[in-house]
C-alpha cells in the first residue's frame, strides 16, 4: 500500500507540474481575433461548419449566415471541416478576416480500408469488413488488445474469461465456426499472419484494426480463414512531419463484490457442521474418531463462540496498481519514413503475489530511393516477465486457486499470531491447503520473448504494374522455472509434501516468404485491379522439460538439489505453400465485381488430401450513382452487395494424419527393455474442414453522412468438421481424428453510426447489433458428441440441435416424506430427503439415461454501443456491450453445494432436509452418507441465464493546447474507468467465463476464474 501511495503522489506531482508549465506556455503566445464567413461553391452560407485550431480542440461553429469568430494565436492554422465537403486548412499569419469557400467532397466514402493483401476505398469494398482506428481506443488501459475492441464491431465477440495479468481473451467472429479445431480468427499484422500470442503485441504500436467477417473478404487467406481474419496495421510515419508523443497512465485495480460467492461465515459454518454430525450420529451411528464416542467434534460443539471468521475469498485479493509508459518518435521526409515506439507496461494482479511486466519496441522504416523503388524494414521485439500468474491455477486440478480458497474453512485464520501458516481443518477425504500460503511462498517465473520482423522490396515496373517481395519472421521462446517447497500443498494434499521443481522451455520460429505482382489500370470507365502471388511458410517448435523430485529439504530450490530428475524433449513442425490471385473490377464506379482464389498445400493432411482450393466472388451495385437515383444531400449512398466464398481450417495439430510412435517398455527374456509402440493412430484420408459462406449486404449514408447504416445477412455451412471421435477399443485405440459432419450458422448484423450533434457540442454514436444462431446438420453415424460422463461431461452436440448445448439432469426438488418417496421414480442412491431428478425417459427409474438438454451455451444476440461527446477542450466517451440468449452452468456449485461436510458451502444449504418434521425449504437435500452424489452431478439447479450488460469503459478528458513554436504542441489529461460494472442475473463472478474454452462443444461451463477487476486510471497524452 505504501508503494502504491508513493506512485500516486509522483503521478499527481507530475500532472500538476505539467498543467503549470502548459499554462505558462499558453500565456506566452500572442492571441488575436479572427472572423469571417464560410460559403459553399454556390456562395451559399454554411451552418455548423467546424472551425478548429489545427492540432488542438479549440474551435467554434459557423452561424446561420456562415459567420464565425474565434480567438487564436497569430501563428495558428485554422481547419474548416463540414460533412460532405473537403476539409480546408488556412494559416492565420496575423490576418483578422478569413472568408472561406468549401468544395463538395465524398471523403467519407473514399476512406481507405485495409483488406486482404491490399487496401480499397470504403465505397468499393464488397466484403463484410469493419475498421476501428486505435485513436478511438487510446484511453482503455490493460495488456489485452481485446479489451479495447469489446463492443465496437458487429459480430465480433470478445470475452474476458479471467483477469489474470497478461491472460489472453477469446475472440470469435460470428460465433463458433468449428467443433474441435479452434474458433479463434487468423490475426495478420502488417500483412504477416502471426503464430504467437496476439497479446504480446503492444496496443500502443497499433494504428487500426480491420475485421474481415465473410468469406469473400477473407478467402485470400484460404485454409486459415474459416474463423474470420483480424488485420492489424501498426503505426507508420507520415511524409513531411516529425512528431514525438508520450503517453502514460497509472491506475488501481479492484474486484467488485458483485458475483462474490455467498458462503457461510464461521458461526454459520460451525452451526451447519454441528447439525451435520448430529444427523450422522442419529442416522448413521457415527463415532468421533478422536474419542470413539458419539459426540460432536470439538471445533463445532459451540458455534456461538465464533464470529464471522475468515473470508478466504477476500483474503486472497488486494487492490493492485497498473502502469503504462509509451514513447513514439516518427519522422518523414520525401524519401525516408521512420516510426519508433517504446512501451513499458506493468500490471500487478489482484490476487496476492502475482504480477507481470512487459517491455516492447517497434521500429517501422521505409526508404524510397526513387519513384520506382521502395524498400522497408520492420522489427518488433517484446520481452515479458510473469511472476506467479500461472500459480493462480492449482497444479493438480488446473482449477483456479481462488475457487479452492473460497470453500476453505472460515474457522481457520489466514496467518497464525506467530506468523506461521495454519492448515484448514477438514474431517473429510479431500483436505485443502492454505491457499494464501501457496501464493506467498511460491516462486514461479515465466520469461517470454517474442519478435516479429519484416523486410520487403517493392519495384514499380511500369505505370500501374508493381512487384513486391517480402520476408517475414515470427520467433519466440518461453522459459519457466518453479520450485514448490514442502509446505506448498495441493487440492486434497495440504502438506507437508515432498518438494518438487520443474524447468520448462520452448522456442518456435515461423518464417514466411511472399511474392506478389499487382496491376492497376483504368481504361475509360473501366477500372481493373489484379493481384497474383505465391506464399511459403514453415513453422517449427521445440520443447524441453526437466522435473526434479525427492528433495531432501527446502534449502536448495533448484533441480540440482533433487535426488531424482526426469526430462523430455519434443519437436513439431508444419509447412504451408500457397498460390493466390484476385481481380477487382468496376464500371463507372457503379458496378463492382471481385473474384479471388487461393490454393493451399498443408503438411497437416494426408498425401492424397494435401491441397485445397478456396474461391470467392462478390458483386456490388452503387445505386446512388445511377442517373435515375434522386439527387439529394439527405441520401448520399445506397449500395447493395452480395458475396460467396469458401474458406478452410487446418487447425488440427501436427502429425494427426500420420501414425506416430512413442517409447514404451517390454519384458524380454525376463528383463524390462525399452522399445517403441504406436501412440497415435493416423488418418490418411483426413481432409480440409471447409466453410461455405453467403453474405448479402446493404449500405446507406443519409443526411450528408450524418447517419450511416451497414446491414449484413450471412449463411455459413461448415462441412468435413475435424473432430476426435471415439472408436471401438477392439482396435487397440480409443479415438481418431475424423471429418465427422456438417453444421450451419446464420445471422443478421447491423452497424449504425450517427453524428447526433455537430456544433460546439459534438455527439457521435456507434451502435452494433448481431443476431446469430447455429444448427448441427449431420454427424458421423448421427452419433452425439459429449454428454457421456455424468461426472464432468456437461455438454452434448446432437443432430438437429445447437452446438454444445448444456446437458444434465433436471432437478425436481427433494423426496419430502416416505409417501412421496414410494410413489416417485428413484435413483439407486435415493432415500427420503435426498435430491429428486425428473424421469425424462419415463422408465420409472432415475439414471444416466434421464440426462437431457438444459439450455443453449451460445448467445443469440450481441450488442455494443459507444457514445462520444466533446465540447471545446473537453471530451467524454462511454462504451457498453452485452449479450442475451445463452445459459451458463455454474460448475462451482459442485463444491459450494457439496453436502458431504468437507467444504464451506452456500448459506442456503442451512435450509436442508433433516427430518420429515424439519424438511427445510424443499430445495436442499439431506446429508446422509452415500446419498449425495446425485445432487453433485450436473443438473438444472446449476443453470442460469447468461444475459449481461457491461459498462466497458468511461473516459473523461481535457486537452491543453499549445500549437506554437515552443516544445509542446498539445497535451491531454484524462480519467478512465474500465470494466465499470456488469448488470446480470447470473450469480457467478463473471458471465463471460462461459467461453473460456476454445471448443464450442464444452462451452457454457463456469469452472471459476481469476477475478476480472475494475480499473480506475489517470493518464496523459503529450505531443511535442
From TrEMBL:
ATP-binding as a keyword of this entry, yes or no, is: no
Q: Does the keyword Transit peptide apply?
A: no
Where do the TonB-dependent receptor-like beta-barrel domain residues begin and end?
469-788
Please give the residue ranges the record annotates as the region Disordered: 991-1012
Q: Where is the composition biased (Polar residues)?
A: 999-1008
Please report the record's description of how this protein sits within the membrane. Multi-pass membrane protein
Quote the subcellular location field of this record.
Cell outer membrane
Xref: Pfam families:
CarbopepD_reg_2, Plug, TonB_dep_Rec_b-barrel
- Judging by the UniProt lineage, the source's domain of life is Bacteria
- InterPro entries to which the protein is assigned, alphabetical: Beta-barrel_TonB, Beta-barrel_TonB_sf, CarboxyPept-like_regulatory, Plug_dom, Plug_dom_sf, TonB-dep_OMP_SusC/RagA, TonB-dep_OMP_SusC/RagA_CS, TonB-dep_rcpt-like
The main place the protein resides is membrane
The protein depicted here goes by the name TonB-dependent receptor
Quote a single Gene Ontology cellular component term.
Answer: cell outer membrane
Q: What's in the keyword line of the UniProt record?
A: Cell outer membrane, Membrane, Receptor, TonB box, Transmembrane, Transmembrane beta strand, Transport
Residue ranges of domain TonB-dependent receptor plug in the record: 122-229
Name the PROSITE patterns for this protein.
TONB_DEPENDENT_REC_3
For this chain, the family text in UniProt reads: Belongs to the TonB-dependent receptor family.
